Amino acid sequence: ETIPPTCRQQFDPVEKRLRIYRASDAAAQR
Length: 30
Fold this sequence. Notes:
The protein is 80% helix and 0% strand. The protein has two helices and no strands.
């Protein structure tokens, strides 16, 4: 992860969505 803190804060909601998406995807695969 080479994202600066400022950008990280801006992309925080996106990262949360990605995490939820990954979690749901993993659950679907199972």
